[in-house]
Amino acid sequence: MRFKEEQPLKDLINSFVDQGELKPKLLEAKIIAGWPNWVGDPIAKYTDKIHVVKGQLIIHISSAPLRNELNYQRQQIRQLVNRELNFDFIEDVIVK
User: Fold this and answer.
1) Which one of 15, 42, 68, 77 has the largest count of C-beta atoms within 10 Å of its C-beta?
2) Rounded to an integer, what distance in angstroms lies between the CA atom of residue 81 and that of residue 63?
3) CATH code reported for the domain at 9-95
4) CA dihedral in degrees (39, 43, 46, 49; nearest 10)?
5) Rounded CA gap, 50 and 27, in Å?
6) How far apart are CA 75 and CA 11, in angstroms?
7) What is the rounded distance in angstroms from the CA atom of residue 74 to the CA atom of residue 77?
8) Torsion angle, CA of 43/87/50/62, rounded to 10 degrees?
9) pLDDT of the chain along its 96 residues, tens only?
10) Does the pTM exceed 0.85?
């Protein structure tokens, strides 16, 4: 039996994700998974925790000098993450 309105499974999953609360969590998981590749091993090595709260990317860094340097590069980090996600998701970056 064939339905009149057949759609690819990918389109159905994407529409389901867009309708619910899943999209922010999926994007957060994508950021966490991609972080070491995007910033490189030296920065990833000192990154303790990453999470997103209401459009703010919060990065916990264990090295004080690196934390200070990343504070100056918050705008570049925001642009990098949004470019890698192909979506304007992060509004601000907080380095702790």
Assistant:
1) 77
2) 21
3) 3.30.300
4) -20
5) 12
6) 33
7) 5
8) 30
9) 566 677 788 877 777 766 767 788 889 999 999 999 999 999 999 999 999 999 999 999 999 999 999 999 999 999 999 999 998 999 999 999
10) no
